[in-house]
Amino acid sequence: MLEMKVDEIHSVLGEDEDAEAMRAEIQHLWARLAFSEDARTRATYDVTKVQTIQKACVVTRKKAESQLKSCQSMIQAKDKELTEALNELTKAKGLLAKLGVPGYIETELIELAANDLTASIDISVLQERLTNMINLVKSLEFAGDVNGSPVVGDVNESLNGMKFLLSRRRQIGKTLGKEWNFSVDPCSGGGNWNTSAPNPPKGYNNTVTCNCSYESNTICHVVSISLKAQSLPGSVPREMVRLPYLQVISLLGNRITGPIPGELANISTLEDLVLEYNQLSGNIPLQFGNFSSIKRILLTSNNLTGELPATLAKLTTLKEFRIGDNKFSGSIPNFIENWTSLDKLFIQGSGLSGPIPSGIASMTNLSDLRISDLNGNDSTFPPLNNTKNLERLILRSCNITGEIPIFVGTMTKLKVLDLSFNKLSGPIPVNFEDLSKTGYIYLTGNSLTGPLPPWMLKDGESIDLSYNNLMSESTPPNCQPRNLNLFESSKGNTTGITSCLRDFRCEKKYYFLRINCGGREVKVDDKGTTYEADGEPGGSSYFLQSKTNWAFSSTGHFLDDYIKIDSYIRDNISSISGQNPELYMNARLSPLSLTYYGFCLENGNYTVKLHFAEIMFTDDRNYSSLGRRIFDVYVQGTRVLKDFNIENEAGGVNKAIVRHFTAAVTAKTVEIRLYWAGKGTTGIPDRGVYGPLISAISVNADFPVPSENGKSMSTGAIVGIIVAVLFTILLVLGILWWKGCLGSKDTIGQDLKGLELHTGSFPLRQIKAATNNFDPANKIGEGGFGPVYKGLLSDGTIIAVKQLSSKSKQWES
């Protein structure tokens, strides 16, 4: 329309210059008008829009004001709730103090509530913190006072019946018999949560360890409880399951009794369970198969019974398993083949039976395998040919038969090889020469045959071949060449004495031997009874011959004691009460087998006396009193003591006890052997304290012993002397009776009445001739008035002549 108006003005003005100028001005004005009209239109639209927005804003403001009021109401309500919670906690504070709850827990709860009340935070965050605080309170577990009485007071009903977290730790300590200081934060490292005892025993540990890295280093959790060598008298707390981040439980060397709670298997983070050297009983819980992270289960030296549960087959994370010195039953289970991650397996003196499962071949990661003293039938050597990392291989007294496999000789990483007291036969493998760097090789107590490998006479650290059937021609006439023990290593000698002493000749016969084991020469009485000295240090494969008629052979070294040179003699620092205390001031020890061997003895029955006293443990309540020494004793190859415990038999430590046995000597030798069958503690009071201990030995003949000059009197001669003496007494009594010396005169007169007595007188010369001048040989008795002699007259008449005493006065009548 604007354009039409412009055209109309053009037609009115015409074509002159003024008109043209005016047209241009008008056109310009119209253009400005058009722009203004457009601007007005837009402005009108904007105003309408603003009006619409303004109306919306009014509505929004009303809603916002309403919401703001609602928020303020919610905040006021939460303030009220928090205030009420704070009041409840404040009220509870007095009760917590009464119950002995530590101050740091009180402060933590109160400050948490106070901070929530004053913090300028979003209501949702505030609500979340309140919820967390309430959950914390609800998770606590303490519902009684220190005496166990119910809580009675003005505590809000919302807290009634709730138990406090503190009680978990308190109950754990109470169950263990451990008194912790609960006024100190366990994770602070203070108090008695992490301390050392005065003069602590070796192995002592008193540590509760926390990990405070949770929730951005704001939350701490207990991850380890280690209470070693403290003689704690309690039981294993099932409450430990409420410590869900626990990784280590170590209660080694205490007096803990009762069963092992199966609930421990619910701790999914647990890696180490160490309960060795306690007095636990019952079975291994079935639940133990539920451990998801377990690496070590150590149960050595307890009183556990029953079979190993099949659920243990699931423990594929296991790296170390020790169950020696227990009372288990059944066989070693086949499921151990599932433990392919296992590094160490100890089954010594456990009570289990063989055979060793063939599935052990799957344990190719083993570095330490110790199995000993299995019950049951014979079995072949286990297939360990793929186990290349073994450093210690102990298969002792496992009823293994057959020859030693060749693959054993390829285990060049071995530090200890113990195949003793099995039923192995055949020759020693040729490739055993590759084991010349092995520290200890024990093939004792088998039936190995063939020649002695020549390399053993010049190489090898410590080798024991005692008690075998090697060719005697290949062995030297010496029981101890280098570090090689050859006592009873062959059976070629028929003279009775051991083959390695075949060149020895007895210079005299012996009827006794007396040894002060591990000590000096000792005289025990006024008669000069002497016990010979036995002070040589001994060794791991050791033989010693005395200067008289005995020797000893010792096999084994003390494992895990970390001592380079073992001691096989123990000195007693305490006093021994009783007879001959000087015999118990020293003792000889052995970690495996100890034989005392007597020779040049006259055949017959002997009384063997073995003197013992436990001098390495204590009888107080300290850690060193937890030790148990258990071993077997053989006399002449027969076991006479099984599971012998010196302390138990003697009624305490440092008390002497003597055991008597009869030994029949038929080949001029006597043998007394002491053997460790894998039972008893091995680390109390120190590592490596175990095995046989003996203080003295005496062996005495039960038959008459010749005098020192060698002349002896037979039993028949002794009987003849006794008979002759009795006859003489009877003869004298008869003569005295006949002479009337045993009756009254009246009685004699009555007896003689009516008898015709043949008496007469004879010249003194004739009487002297008849009695051979009163030869003492003819004297037949003596009465009150003089001696009586037998005489013989020339006509053969036998007479009795009394030679009167000058003091009798009888000749005067």
From TrEMBL:
It catalyses: L-threonyl-[protein] + ATP = O-phospho-L-threonyl-[protein] + ADP + H(+); L-seryl-[protein] + ATP = O-phospho-L-seryl-[protein] + ADP + H(+). It is found in: Membrane. It is a single-pass type I membrane protein. GO terms for molecular function: ATP binding; protein serine/threonine kinase activity. Residues 774-813 form the Protein kinase domain. Keywords: ATP-binding, Glycoprotein, Leucine-rich repeat, Membrane, Nucleotide-binding, Phosphoprotein, Receptor, Repeat, Signal, Transferase, Transmembrane, Transmembrane helix. The chain crosses the membrane at residues 717-738. It comes from the Eukaryota. Its main location: membrane. PROSITE patterns: PROTEIN_KINASE_DOM (PS50011). Pfam families: LRR_8, Malectin. GO terms for cellular component: membrane. Its EC number is 2.7.11.1. This is non-specific serine/threonine protein kinase. It comes from Forsythia ovata.
